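Quick note —
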Amino acid sequence: MLDDSIQRNAGSECSDMKVECFPSITMEQLHRVIENRDLENPDTVFIDVGTNDLRRSGNRDCVMSVVYVVVNTAKQSFQHPE
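Predicted structure written out below.
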């Protein structure tokens, strides 16, 4: 799970779940994290961010376009070999 901080304690009862929290992170910053950090290769990725972006810009369309880019980057980064 990649999160801005709201889900910080999510998965604490699951030993096979890794939660990465980045307080106050924006979507563009998360995009760079996904591109540049080794986050291993999980079976499932849950991305819970965007609140900070909406608060800063107030423009849903702009935020959603960045969400689209982040999701596509995550799909490519966490791809399992076939």
